[in-house]
Amino acid sequence: MNQSTRKITLRDSTLREGLDTPGVAFSPEQKLRIARLLDEAAIPEAEVVAPSRVLKDLEFASTVKMQIPRLRTTGLIYAYSPQAREEISAASGRLDHFDILVPVSERRRPFSRADKLALVSEIVEFAVARHGDVGVGFPHSTQTDAQFLLEICRRATEAGASRLIIYDTNGSADPFIVQDLISRLAGEIAAPIFFHGHNDLGLATANSLAAVRAGAAGLDVTVNGLGDRAGNACLEQVAVALHLRGFETGIALRKLTALAAAVEKESGVPVSKLAPVVGEFVVRHKSPSHLADPDLFEAFDPELIGIERTLEP
């Protein structure tokens, strides 16, 4: 198969990572409205459970599962949490999939690499015995050496992990680093690999594309790029960029503008007029000559997402 025909899963994290955006707090009703819009846009998965509030968020996950059955629900659980086993048991009955987080930095518990490896084996085996679809996420993946990351990924898959999530937690990586790292992991690990990019240097979309080129099967994204600090890889940008390069996501691209506007309203975080894909100025031209041959000046046909180009008066 030509690589550009691969199906790439986009998992939306607006209802988890988006809540780490300063000033953003969604009510249960707001979260349900956003979840419905994600489903209408054919988003296949939504991350709805945060590791800091697992048991509370599972109540909302149950509501989503009952009212929006097509939308797969996922969440995160810290392996080192004193409540990890209780949270895993609770999540097993309410989520379609969950990921166990094991930070690979030696500055986060458990501190030693030997203890991290032992914990991965133990906690993943415990989780897999209770739920058949358990992944493992590795915060700070781009801040540790690749050999240890490869070793702990192997340990996770040997214990039964169904997918691995590689986090650029502080957004410091670039596409070259990401491509090298994901390529190495994908070449040696059988489990699907997802990439989770932060946008601290404005590279989250580029890093996400690099991850896909290197063999990643899925990406974490958020509507409007909401997320901690400078945010995360932006759903709208990633979905359109992948489509233009021939990758399949199944996303209903014509729903993206309305989805972005709705999340802008619910979150209170404005979308820049200069924002790629859904910004007000993205296909607004000041030069009449552009309209004679617009594809020389536009990255995509506005019809792709259901908008119209305009000429500044």
Supply database-style keywords.
alpha/beta, TIM Barrel, 2 domains, two-stranded parallel sheet, 35% helix
Outline of the structure:
The protein has 313 residues and is α/β, with parallel strands linked by helices. 35% of the residues lie in helices and 14% in strands.
Blueprint of the fold:
Layout: E1 9-12, H1 28-40, E2 45-49, H2 54-67, E3 72-78, H3 84-92, E4 97-101, H4 113-128, E5 134-138, H5 146-158, E6 164-168, H6 175-188, E7 193-197, H7 204-213, E8 218-221, H8 235-244, H9 256-267, E9 284-285, E10 310-311
Parallel strand pairs: 1-2, 1-8, 2-3, 3-4, 4-5, 5-6, 6-7, 7-8, 9-10
Q: Which residue ranges are poorly predicted, with pLDDT under 50 across at least 5 consecutive positions?
A: none
CATH class of the largest domain: Alpha Beta
User: Which sequence of SSEs, written as H and E, runs from N to C?
Assistant: EHEHEHEHEHEHEHEHHEE
CATH architecture of the largest domain: Alpha-Beta Barrel
Q: Numbering strands along the chain, what is their spatial order in the largest sheet?
A: 1-2-3-4-5-6-7-8
The tally of domains stands at: 2
Helix content: 25-40%
Radius of gyration: 20 Å
Number of helices: 9
Structural class assignment: alpha/beta
Principal-axes shape call: globular
Mean pLDDT: 97
Proportion of beta-strand residues: 5-15%
Largest sheet: 8 strands, parallel, barrel
Give a structural overview.
With about 325 residues, the protein is of the alpha/beta class. It has two domains: about 5-265, Aldolase class I (TIM Barrel); about 285-313, no CATH class. It is about 35% helix and about 15% strand. The protein contains nine helices and ten strands. The chain has helices at about 30-40, 55-65, 85-90, 115-130, 145-160, 175-190, 205-215, 235-245, 255-265; strands at about 10, 45-50, 70-80, 95-100, 135-140, 165-170, 195, 220, 285, 310. The chain has an eight-stranded parallel barrel, surrounded by seven helices. It has a two-stranded parallel sheet with strand order 9-10. Helix 1 packs antiparallel against helix 9 and helix 4 packs parallel to helix 5. It is globular. The chain starts with 8 loop residues before the first strand and ends with a strand. The mean pLDDT is about 95.
